[in-house]
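Example (one chain per record):
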Amino acid sequence: MPNKFSEYLKLRKARKRLKELFKAACYRYDCDRDILSETDCTTLNGIIEEAESVCKQGADEITEFVDRNCSVVDRMNPLQNKTARSIRSFLDILAVAFGVAFGIRALYLQPFKIPTGSMQPTLFGIHYVDRAGLEKHGSSLSRFLIPLTSPRAYLKVQQDGELSRSYKAKNSLFSENTQINIGGVDYVLPGNFGNIYRYMDCMKDQYQKGEVLCDGWLVTGDHLFVERVSIYFRGIKRGDVAVFNTENIVSENQPLGGYYYIKRIVGLPGDTIRIDGNILKIRKKGETEFQIAAKLHPGFAKTDSMKGGYHGHIADGILADGQEVTVPKNHYFALGDNTSNSLDGRHWGFIPRRNMIGLAVNVFWPVTRRWGFVDTLDPIDEPTRLPYSMEIQ
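Predicted structure:
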């Protein structure tokens, strides 16, 4: 019995060595046969084929085979060491994974972050979320995640006085902050104070000691995936929420804030656009009468609903009251859903077809009411207040 057990252990050890040799030979052949000589490839093939048959033999035969061929594989395979092979295998897998990921990003899905409120409330940029509003309107998941993932924005006034309108940037390595002054006391809040907190109901000039100016969190803009392929098959349609680059697009009012913009496509080539009394109207190419845009796409109907932060379209720029524009060939016209705070086609005109990147597909962060497919939600059933309150949002 002891002899049988020792023979078993000896055979097991021999087969383990054979397995290591087999893996080393296969690895060398699979990875580097394009750079190996024809003789080396033939030798490795022979070792691999013979190893499969030797495996069924006894411990002595297996040991003799391994001892005879180890030096051969060692000579051709500098990564004979198991740890080194494992590291190289991991790096190979990592390289392939990165290649696939970047290929998907370049050819199909590309992540974007919304920095501004020009598409609000369809999509949100960086914004302040009030604690009371989150508790009232937020889901249980958003009430849990937002405090964990967002900078705290809390300010309790320590001294009676006036809110100074001179804000100072106090940026750290990873975030933008603003220093404000009330009654001679300095406070620091996350984000750009003038842009992010200006719609707060409590915003005023004079404060009393003990008043709370804000109690909430600064939430980063919606992160979404943009699908880049379908526009080459289905085309770009009226009402699409699309991303485009700003090459050769210039605004006379102010510099464009980034290379990528996201807006709702309003006009197709040949369409004529106008805004009458905050109502967007479109005359399609070849037609003689204007139609209310809300009848052409549900996205426009939301904007005209005057609910949940939607407030119609503001006539401005080249679409000021009484003016209209016709979209030229191979161009598109786009507006933000929040035209009271949107640098869009009213200010810089038309988007060349070559600038179009793709269609907004889904919001993957943060987990809020908007999480999921873009532009599928009805407005919150609350009348819009102007300037609209973040609590309602």
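Caption: Residues 2-32 form the longest helix (31 residues).
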